[in-house]
Amino acid sequence: MNIKKQLRRFYAFGFFACLRIPDAVWVVFLAARGYSLWEIGLAEGIFHIVSLLCEIPSGMAADLIGRRRSLAAAGVCGVISALFMALSTHFFGVCLSMVFSALSSNLISGSDEALLYDSLLEVDRQEDYLSVNAHYSRIQNFGGVLSNAASLLAGVLSYIGFYLVDAAVCLGRIFSALSLMEPSVTENQRKRQEHPFRNFGKRLREHIAQAADFLRTYPRIAGVMIADGLLTLPSFLTLMFLQQRLNLLGLDAVWLGIPVMCISLARVLGVTLGQRVQIRNLKRLYMICALLVGAGTVCAGAASIIPAVLGAMVAAASMDVWVLHLQNRLNGIFPSDRRATLISVNMMAYSVLMVVASPVVGWLSDMGTTGGMGLCVLGAVVAAAGIILPLVNRKRR
Question: What is the mean pLDDT of residues 229-250?
């Protein structure tokens, strides 16, 4: 494998995967179409129900059929999702869009991380994973920056136009995914490339048993996954409900992408900081990051425009420091043949929590005049988890 060419193509996929131009204004678009924050939260909850149901199966598909194929299928689902949102006139169409959007995210999550790590492992460069993954995250965040800047087009482009452009971007994901090479670091992976569906039922049963056996061998990983899900809860909910809150505070929809763009730039800084900091104690890192994420989320829900955006920036940067080091630690433990599946198990913990948190935060945000109560409660929960979970772990030890 030509690792330099593989990484260039992988970075291109990451850019297209995070270039989602409706993200900065989708809540405002739905609110302008007459949907309440509760309904918008429900739609987001549907997204996470589908994520919960399909997260592990999509990881298994990536391990058994191929990570490259999964990433290409994610682009197809993205196109369908964008077309449903652009052309539907009822809430049911919005929900269908969320279903395919969730499938697209499921097919990417785990698959891209597994493909990247195994690509480096194939050429014996797995020790470079932290720095390469950090660069990949920065490229993704720059894609997010451009997506947020696209909110400036809200004055001249309708929501239909936004989603049609989004569908075109998803085509770029398909082509960039198909340009990748499938890494082969085990005998099973080499066989999979030639005959991906041969003895699929038997392979699936063996795969499930082996993944379950791994989790039984490393029981503390389950606790780490739950803790990670709690800390990363604000990652999307803050962006989602801060949009409407800033609009209620007087910021025009045309300018909503600017504060969200600042949050994406903060994530770039967080990844850069995380790359340069040497971490030995994940528990201590979790406590620090959870307190910062919680405080920043409370600030996003309670403060005026500028402090709210600054709080969201602190939360986003702290979250990415944690995620970068957690991914590096877990991938050093996960076996290659089950890597995408086990990463998906980690993502499932987040989806389980989001199924509950999304509509609840939306319902709380409907109270009051500035839509910030839900974020305040969410931030308090995350900060409390940063204090309580490490203490619980210490008692168990």
Answer: 82
